[in-house]
Amino acid sequence: MAAQESPSAQPRKIILLGARWCAPCIAELRDLPRLVAAAAPDRIALAWVDRPPALPPALAAQVDIIALPQAHALALRLGGQGFGLPMAAIMASSGQYCRPWPHSLSPERLPDLRQSCD
User: Given strand 87-91, what is the order of strands in its sheet?
Assistant: First the structure.
């Protein structure tokens, strides 16, 4: 009989909520290549509440961009009215979100985000 994988072993989507006017969000974006590598097998998605950032072609194939209306709705859902940025969340394969992470996310802090969602 094959061993069952725990739910946390299934790839998830790590959502980074941000905006062009948010300095920590821009810093997070500059570190995106390292974050994508550290997040594997989970996938990174950007949900920017103003204009989605343009990504280099090599990185664009590895990162999902959430459309502006959905990004704004997600920020309101996770952060409430007057939500603060940057914010991150993990979406499970079931479509459920864990408690939002109200901080910048770096490869070094990724284990903390994952632990908060397990």
Answer: 63-65, 43-48, 13-18, 87-91
